Amino acid sequence: MAGGDRAQASRMARGSRILILVASIALGLTYILPIWTISLEAPQYPEGLGMVIRLNTIEGQKKHDLSNINNLNHYIGMKRIEPESIPELRIMPVVVGMLILTGLLVAGLGRKRLLYAWTAVFLAISLVGLADFWKWEYDYGHDLDEETAIIKIPGMSYQPPLIGSREILNFTAHSWPGTGGAIAILVALTAVGVSFREWRSGGGRDRRAEGGVGAASSKKLVGVGSLGLVMMFGLAGCGDSGPRPLVAGVDACADCLMVLDSNGHGGQIVSAKGRIYTFDSVECMANHLRMAMEDEGVRSLWVVDFSEPQSLVVAEEAFYLVSPTLASPMGLGVTAFARLEDRDGAVHAFGGDAEDWSGIQALVSSAWPDGRPSGSHGGHATEVSVPGEA
Q: Which terminus of the chain has fewer Cβ atoms in its 10 Å neighbourhood, N or C?
């Protein structure tokens, strides 16, 4: 190959240089758009709580959200989220600025080797950033101050997912790239696609014909990369969600919105999508199942074993007592047991009627034909207050 041909083969096509130029400029939008978002859903927070992670700070989605999240973290011994104490928020603006400047340099000089090096560095920084973000979440969710924690659950961690959704106590945590993060992903895909195209168009072959093959290959690569990201997001959010112990003073009832203050009653519904709904009484769970779960679908139903309040039993397999003497939080006197002998012993001790799950459903339908009536509380629940708000 002559010197001129080699020089020509080492240079990027005009279209590739334009793509890298546009991608580098687009990366500048990460300075003003959110990189990542973490949101929390719970019955006692109907509007939700959320954090927006930007390139140089962390802030609440709404005015008091970050303060409310820090107040909640205090109960379980988590550290406060203070942006000024996170060194990555000072480093990332510099790192992204360097990527933008070097990307513009690649587009200006048009050298393939510079393109390959820039793409490799970009991908390496992206992977390191994701790993560091996961470590940050891990530290906050596991490094708890047990001496100051008001609520202690042995073996419990409070780490949000890197990507996807996860149940944490009575909250559903969602973690997804923000608009700026999505732009960074698209820039990375563009860099990979352009690099692959230029690599395919190298050598002494006809650039026009080879460019057509390279363009088609790069389109396929971008398509496969996008599909891989979608699959990764989907798999990350599809963990096997199952029941967990209810936590008095933290969990709230999805049906009546009251905070649980008794460990002896309650239940959980695991929806078809894996979301967990908690309840302060069996009757609230049966009512919610009848009135609100038809569209979402149900994976499993669980009730608290009165004899062992930290244990949950499949609702259809539990043994029930309906007794005015053994009151339940919502007033219908429904108590569940995992063992037949425990239920029968309670019948002798408290009186009342033995029932199965279908009998409990019929009881709730008869007592509350139009849904749980307002004011149908048994006097054991307390109203929910939102920290940081009047």
A: C
**In tens digits, what is the pLDDT along the chain, a chain of 390 residues?**
455 555 566 889 999 999 999 999 999 999 999 999 998 887 767 778 889 999 999 999 888 888 888 887 777 777 888 888 889 999 999 999 999 999 999 999 999 999 999 999 999 999 999 999 998 888 887 877 777 666 666 666 778 888 888 887 777 888 999 999 999 999 999 999 999 999 988 643 444 444 444 445 445 544 444 444 444 444 344 444 557 777 777 778 888 888 777 668 889 998 887 788 888 899 999 999 988 887 788 889 999 998 888 889 999 999 999 998 888 888 899 999 999 998 988 888 888 999 999 999 999 999 998 887 765 544 333 333 333 333
Q: What's the total number of domains in the chain? A: 2
Q: For residue 343, how many other CB atoms are within 10 A of its CB?
A: 20
Structure tokens at 121: 């560095």
Q: What range does the domain containing 336 cover? A: 242-390
In order, the DSSP letters of 132-143 are HHHHHHHHHHH-
What does the radius of gyration of the chain's CA atoms come to, in whole angstroms?
A: 28
- The distance in angstroms from the start CA to the end CA of the chain is 78
230 shares a domain with 120: yes
Q: Do residues 248 and 192 both lie within one domain?
A: no
Same-domain check for residues 111 and 229: yes
Q: Which residue among 236, 261, 287 closes a domain?
A: 236
